[in-house]
Each structure stands twice: as C-alpha cells, then as structure tokens.
Amino acid sequence: IQEELHRWKQDNFHQVLQLEGARQIGKTTELLKFAYQNYEYTVYVNLASDPYHFLEVVQNGCTPIEMEKYCRRAKLPHFVNGQNTILVIDEIQQDSAVYNAIRTLNGNLACDVAVTGSYLGRILGEKDFFLPAGTIYSCRMFPLSFLEFSRVFGKENSLKQLDLFGKSSLREYEALQQLYQIYVQIGGYPEAVKRYKATENIDACYGVIGRLLDTFKEESRNYFTSPREVEIFDIVYREAFQEMCSEKKGSGKNIVEKITSLVKAGTDVIVSKSEISNAVVWLKYTGILGTCSLANEGNIRNIIPDRRLYYMDCGIASYIGKKYTMEPSAVTGLLAETFVYNELHRLFGVPFGERKVKEDEVCFSVFHSYELDFMITDRENTVYGIEVKAKDGEPQSLKVFIDKKFVDKGIVLKQTKGGRSALFDTIPIYAAGCRFPYCLDEGQME
Q1: Maximum Cα–Cα distance across the chain
Q2: Residue ranges for the chain with pLDDT beneath 50
Q3: Which pTM was predicted?
Q4: What radius of gyration do the chain's Cα atoms show?
Q5: Where are the beta strands (DSSP E) in 221-357?
Q6: Which 3 state secondary structure label does DSSP give 283?
Q7: Which of 62, 82, 118, 315 lies deepest, with the highest CB count within 10 Å?
C-alpha cells in the first residue's frame, strides 16, 4: 500500500486520498507512517474521538484560518498551508458533514488531504452522504498477502525466486510450505500475525480473531435499524461458512437463495430473502466476505456476478471452521480455496496500468457436472483454468475444461514442489498470487 500512496502523492490532479479497507488491517498505521515519512507537517484528526471539534472547520468554510484555529485547540504546531503539509482525517464515516466537505477542503487548502475509515461502502448509500466524484483517489487495503506474510519471516525473496517446477532446494519448498500451513490458520490481520510471531501459538491468534469478529458485530449495531437484523447478521456468519463447504456450491445458484435455505433449515428464525441479502451485503461492506462470479458453461465471456462467497481472510475462515462443527476434510479444502481466492482477488486491486489480469474479478465455472475452481485471464488474453487440490487425486474438471478448449493453460495448485506434464502444470499453492501468470524465465525454459 505504501507504493500506492506514493503514486497518489506524485499525481498532479490534487485529489483527496481515500484509503478503504476492513477494520483492524492497519489503514491508520500505514497512512500515518507514510505521512510522517513524506511530509514536514501532519495534522491528524480522528472523528471517532475528536474533542477539538473539527466539524467547526467545516461549518466555518474550510479555510486556512479555521485550520489554524483547530491546530491551536488541539495544541498542534502552527498550520502551514502548503505542499509539505498533509491533513489526515481518520474514521471519516463518523460524520457525513465532514465527508461531504471533502471537495471544499481540497479546493480551499493548498495542503494534501487524506481520509480513511471502515464501512464506507455502506454509508455512501445513505441519504446524508454523497460521493464527491472527480475529487477522490481511492485505494483499497487488504490483510497481509502471503508474500507480505513471508516478508515478516524473512522468506519474501525465497518466494519470489523459487522455481515453480521443483528445481529449487528441498529446504526452500519445505520452509515456504510451513509458512503456508501457518498462514491458512491465522490469516493476514496484523494483530494475529504479531501475536503468532511473539508466541508461535495458533490458539492465541484465534483469540485475536474472535475479538475482531466481536468488534465487527458490535459496530454493526450502529448501522442496522433493528435488533432482528443483528441477530440475522450473526446467524449468517455460520451459515455462509456452511454454504462454502457445501458440495453444491458450484451449482451457480443465487447466493442469497442458498443461504436463506440454510438459515431456514438450521434455525427457528423466520427470515426473508431481503433480510439475508442485507446481512450478506453488510458482510461484504465490512470486508469479511467477498464474492466470486460464475463463468457460465465454461465461457469466460459469459459472466454471472456474485455466485459464490469466500471469506476475505484465511484466519477468519479457519476460526469459524474451528468454532462450529464442520466436516474436517471440507474445511481443509475450503481453506485452500479461500487462500487461492484471496491471492487472485488481490490481482484486481491494483491500478489498471499495472494489472496482470483482465475482467473485473476472478471467477469459477461449471460445465455440466464439472466444476472448475477458478478461471482468470492475463493481459495477453491467455485464459488460465485453475484447480485447487487439498489432497491427492486427478484434476478431472480441469482436464475437461482443457479438452473443451475453455481454457488455454491448465494449472493445478497443491502442496507440492511442482511439476510439468503435457496437459497441465502443477505448482506450489503458496505461489498462486505473487507468481501469476506462472511464466518460466527464459533461462528456465526446457
């Protein structure tokens, strides 16, 4: 995210930076790190706890004089209205008046302006908020990727340089495999990663994740209009996981219909599709759930959106799998797919000019009784069919998709050193995202 922040600073259009992302992934930490390293003066405002009344700056015209008054109230240094100053407004979702004044602040002040907060997707749909089109430079932040996780443990270069087809040392494969097995259990939320680094205790990390989910639930009460919505929201946590574990998840049926059926079958709560839809949408806004589209009948150009759910962090999926009674083999397979989904999903979250992929998001596909885990297209229009294997077995669906010429290149992702065959390549699962599009260097070509 630091690279993206630097691109914004070098942009010539003087837009407001809006840094979005789930709660507790380090947005404020990274934004302030960037501010203190790149500006002489930083004015930090936290609207969740603002005893110095930044709203008065907005109400009185968003002028440099009002900024100076605010700095005096907050006992900050004299306000310098220039390019060496950045105004950082945290928890921007707390006040619609401040958010709606973004354009005015940006126009009246010569300094840079950056805002951040969670739940922005939800609040911008409310009547008191409006999107200042043309004013915003939007960035999205995620939990740590596996590459970033590897950096924490000194294995980033090893992951970048690893031969995907078995020619590196066994020690390198084993070290990265061990990190992968930790990552799919604790995920990439910074506090969970720090807890593991300090304790090497998975259960301690689950304690962090449990508290994080409790925070999501409590904060959700501020956005739901009735206690019933909170109750349904809590049920959908579990039932969304059950839907992901279901053997029928590849049917391509509507997500809301499937979860509604599961809730009705598994609880005494009488619910409607609209109530379940609201809960699912909210889980997307909070960054807990992500959706995957369907490439209908193997056709990458015939996309039906939002036909499968995934948790946006392996740690959350693993925690819920441990908390509720689930079939162990189904949970193992789901965690492997969740890992790959998130690694591929990140490929779409970079500036358009730097993307390695086409389309809007990664998708899966169903052809007759065959389900392919993922399909993705690179910048050269090569369509990759990807099958994730949590255990040994032939990739039957992938073979069918290759035979039907639905995909140009077949990839099996599993816990392996990698290998090649005439029909498809097998590569280590932990290389799914950072090494896409899985090309061999010229020196490695056979």
Answers
A1: 71
A2: 247-250, 441-446
A3: 0.90
A4: 23
A5: 289-296, 303-311
A6: helix
A7: 315
